[in-house]
């Protein structure tokens, strides 16, 4: 798990300060939102939790098993987030929690009027590329998310502003919450198109672009060619792609090439040089630099670790 997908760790409460060993709650109340930090220090099952508002939860430590209405139970791990609707009750298992391995999760309770106001503003001023898919926050189909670096960075700012003691705290919190909502919707848009592009080829022009990129990672992928596929000028394509997904086309290409590089590096007979060229980097030094920046280790060390894991 790349550390870029995990907020900076929050210190655990001392045992003497815990009021309960199951979902001990620390609350930071602001005008814009309420930040809750939950810790569980012993195994437990079927623990219900309802926040009375739409909630973004993010796992920081340990493992939970989540039960949400109308869905099969799923493992909930660090680097992931779950959106829980205003009228939903979470039911949670803690199969591995103990004093040495507690779970820790943050939950941001977001007022409904803030959500509506932010969505209305985006749809009016910054509409999505396809008019039939307006901005919205999906708490069902795309509620379980793998964090993006951008979402993680905003969560870190949410934590930081909650713990500040400044006169401008609530003003900063309001701006940061709006950013969080935008990042959430962009993350859901990525999941919709990046992971399920084949289902949207007839309805979303960026689905064609994503398909072309994924099928041609070893080839040059100039933005001019991609903008033609989207039937846009280069400048419009670049601007709207970033607005829709929260990253540029070039950043997406790098992300996909590194993902494919990791897949190839896990193959026993592959070499780092071969993987570099098969994923379109064409410059081993640049490949090494990018891989280390995004994954925290060199391609060679990554391959050794994967080989050791079998």
UniProtKB/TrEMBL annotation:
GO terms for molecular function: DNA-binding transcription factor activity; sequence-specific DNA binding. Gene3D superfamilies: Homeodomain-like. Residues 207-305 form the HTH araC/xylS-type domain. The keyword Transmembrane helix does not apply. It comes from the Bacteria. Keywords: DNA-binding, Transcription, Transcription regulation. This is AraC family transcriptional regulator. It comes from Hymenobacter edaphi.
């Amino acid at each position: 798990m790349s550390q870029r997908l995990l907020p900076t760790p929050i210190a655990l409460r001392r045992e003497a300060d815990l009021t309960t060993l199951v979902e001990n709650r620390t609350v930071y109340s602001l005008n814009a939102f309420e930040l809750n930090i939950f810790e569980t220090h012993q195994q437990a099952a079927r623990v219900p939790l309802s926040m009375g508002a739409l909630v973004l939860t993010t796992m920081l430590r340990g493992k939970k098993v989540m039960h949400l209405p109308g869905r099969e139970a799923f493992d909930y791990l660090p680097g992931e987030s779950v959106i829980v609707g205003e009228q939903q009750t979470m039911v949670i298992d803690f199969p591995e929690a103990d004093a040495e391995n507690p779970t820790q999760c943050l939950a941001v309770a977001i007022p409904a009027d803030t959500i509506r106001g932010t969505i209305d503003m985006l749809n009016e001023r910054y509409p999505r590329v396809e008019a039939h898919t307006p901005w919205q926050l999906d708490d069902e189909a795309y509620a379980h998310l793998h964090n993006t670096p951008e979402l993680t960075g905003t969560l870190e700012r949410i934590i930081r502003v909650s713990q500040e003691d400044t006169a401008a705290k609530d003003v900063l919190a309001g701006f940061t919450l709006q950013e969080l909502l935008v990042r959430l919707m962009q993350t859901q848009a990525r999941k919709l198109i990046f992971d399920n592009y084949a289902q949207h080829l007839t309805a979303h022009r960026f689905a064609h672009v994503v398909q072309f990129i994924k099928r041609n990672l070893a080839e040059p992928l100039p933005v001019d060619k991609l903008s033609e596929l989207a039937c846009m000028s280069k400048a419009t394509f670049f601007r709207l792609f970033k607005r829709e997904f929260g990253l540029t086309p070039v950043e997406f290409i790098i992300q996909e090439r590194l993902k494919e590089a990791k897949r190839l590096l896990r193959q026993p007979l592959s070499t780092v040089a071969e993987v570099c060229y098969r994923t379109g980097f064409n410059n081993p030094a640049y490949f090494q630099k990018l891989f280390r920046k995004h994954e925290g280790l060199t391609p060679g060390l990554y391959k050794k670790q994967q080989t050791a894991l079998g």
